[in-house]
Here is the input.
Amino acid sequence: MRIRYAGLITAFAAASFFATPALPHHSNVAFEVNKIITLTGEVTEFRWVNPHTWIGVNVDDGKGGKAVWAIEGRAPGVLLRAGWSKNFIKLGETVTIDFSPAKDGSKTGLVARVTKADGTILANAGPPQD
Amino acid sequence: MNLDKTMLAARWGLALLGVCAVSSPLLAQAAAAAPPDLTGVYYPIMPFPPGLVPPRPAEGQPPPKLRASAPLADGSQGRGRNAPSLTPEYMAKWEVVRKSRMSGSSEYDASAKCLPLGMPNMMVMFLGMEVMQNKDKITMFSELNDSLRRVYLDGRKPSQKVLDDPTYAGYSTGHWEGDTLVVDTVALHPGSFIDGMSPHSDQMTVHETIRFAEPTLLEDHVTVTDPKALTKPWENTYRYRRAKPGKDELREFACPEGLADAK
Here is the structure.
């Protein structure tokens, strides 16, 4: 899978044809929602778009190298109400992500929780309404 | 001369009678309670099973271990206890949907394609709801996929043209019975799913009673009838809490925005 590094970050986003994976648009059914794995890595990308935000993280692949994972988050409206902002995650910062892995084994996932290096927790939603 | 005066008196008398005749029901109407105003922003109550939104950890405590990221929506657990009771023909259609979703495909997931969820499923109002009301029409807007539905209150009925043009939201007409809004929806597009996964036919209709159970708690009790797809009507209640000040802004969804980069 090739993720394209277009969007917020780079000046040449619009015309970019880098050899990078494409972002798949998955619904929740593409992920094993009742399973949570945790990875820590540096943020390579943070896309603040509908219907899903995306965080790219560069993670140790366990074989001495690095691998980029593309983790899908909730929509900007939800995250804003949960305390996130568009600029809250910076490129290069280290984050720990709890997420559900993809059913097809690709390096993608569905965010459950993001924890910044300073311990700030970014949940997927605010407290229940009741 | 006397005849003129008599005519004048008669005219005044009739005019007075007319005024009384007109104002009497108006006064009665004013004396009766005006229907409630549903205008405002709401969030759904517990759209998820508990445990999906972990509480903030207590001071000094490690964050709680997470068990899930989202509700299970691929049918891998079979039919839920409160699932619509499908006919054998529509159970077979459900099996096709289930198999597809369990494989990870979004083919039978309208929301993933940026389509409206349709009635009644849109009344989950998963990300929030905004209601606009006047005496002739109530419009309900769902942040999820920027969907909306209109409920006509002015007594109009769906024409044959409308019935021949099914839509995801359907065509809704309603009236007030005291403090309860009673709504009937017809002309529903068969491509939506009753509860997010159960398919339905073009004969599905939805009946709702909507009222405040508490001053800030709105309830929508839904009854779904479908002689082709359901063995009996399906009932469900959607509940919403009025948004608190400072948290009452829904956001644009613009669903296709991120699809440009999708493969």
The domain at 28-123 of chain A is CATH 2.40.50.140 (OB fold (Dihydrolipoamide Acetyltransferase, E2P)). The first helix of chain A runs from residue 76 to 81. The radius of gyration of chain A is 14 Å. The helical segments of chain A are 76-81.
